């Protein structure tokens, strides 16, 4: 039996980008594409795209390209977004409000099911279609609804404490918007979104003229 090949993280990281581009093509009414066209749209070589997809089997036929709806379905299955993932949000501040209103989660496989905060002034208030709940109710909610994903949008000074609470409650994946590195057990998946980090990665390459 052939050994299962470990897919490099960098490849996994490109799959959602392919999926997003394919969904744009589908919305344009397109049926067929090629690794060349996808590569041109994304600034990635066609060979790289073919190699990335080859980790998951054979897609499309030589010379005829990929059927867009089929490749979308394959990628959705591979990324496990062929289902809906419930997630919670902690922090109902400026960013929390923006996230609560964001329409882009649902079509891509995610449903925000609860929002928590520790400010008595905010608890009980509506935010989008939700009512802000006391963060003390988080553990019970997570256990009862078997939620696996949390988005943290609290100040950096509170993020570790909130992450600990999430992990204890059974959360398995954290999207952390607070600009701080979280110490969590190895089994917990964490992704960081910090625009300043991305900006700093660009300023390294900018000239000194400014
Ligand atoms: N990644 C990004 O794009 C991005 C952009 C802006 C801000 N941020 C970061 O996101 C976080 C939130 O920013 P903001 O502008 O919304 O801040 P904010 O002050 O408007 O909101 C933070 C919210 O967290 C709540 N909170 C504080 N401690 C808590 C705790 N222990 N439990 C539950 N709730 C708690 C506060 O009551 C408040 O409602 C900050 O860490 C900020 O640096 C990230």
TrEMBL record:
GO terms for molecular function: DNA binding; DNA-binding transcription factor activity. The keyword Transcription applies. NAD(+) binds at residues 91-96. It is found in: Cytoplasm. Keywords: Cytoplasm, DNA-binding, NAD, Repressor, Transcription, Transcription regulation. Residues 17-56 bind DNA. The keyword NAD applies. GO terms for cellular component: cytoplasm. Signal peptide: none annotated. InterPro entries: CoA-bd, NAD(P)-bd_dom_sf, Rex_actinobacterial-type, Rex_DNA-bd_C_dom, Tscrpt_rep_Rex, WH-like_DNA-bd_sf, WH_DNA-bd_sf. One of its GO terms (biological process) is response to redox state. Residues 80-181 form the CoA-binding domain. Belongs to the transcriptional regulatory Rex family. Modulates transcription in response to changes in cellular NADH/NAD(+) redox state. Homodimer. This is Redox-sensing transcriptional repressor Rex. The lineage of its organism: Bacteria, Bacillati, Chloroflexota, Thermoflexia, Thermoflexales.
């Amino acid at each position: 039996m052939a050994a299962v090949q470990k897919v490099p993280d960098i490849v996994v990281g490109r799959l959602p980008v392919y999926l997003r581009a394919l969904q744009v093509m589908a919305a344009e009414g397109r049926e067929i594409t090629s690794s060349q066209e996808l590569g041109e749209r994304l600034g990635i070589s066609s060979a790289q795209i073919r190699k990335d997809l080859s980790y998951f089997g054979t897609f499309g036929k030589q010379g005829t390209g990929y059927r867009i709806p089929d490749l979308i379905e394959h990628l959705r299955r591979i990324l496990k977004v062929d289902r809906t993932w419930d997630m919670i949000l902690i922090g109902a501040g400026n960013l929390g409000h923006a996230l609560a209103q964001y329409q882009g989660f649902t079509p891509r496989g995610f449903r925000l099911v609860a929002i928590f905060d520790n400010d008595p002034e905010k608890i009980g208030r509506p935010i989008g279609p939700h009512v802000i709940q006391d963060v003390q109710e988080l553990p019970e909610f997570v256990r009862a609804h078997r939620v696996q994903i949390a988005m943290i949008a609290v100040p950096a000074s509170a993020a570790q404490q909130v992450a600990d609470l999430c992990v204890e409650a059974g959360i398995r994946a954290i999207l952390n918007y607070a600009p701080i590195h979280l110490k969590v057990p190895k089994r917990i998946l964490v992704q960081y979104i910090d625009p300043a980090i991305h900006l700093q990665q660009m300023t390294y390459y900018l000239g000194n003229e400014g």
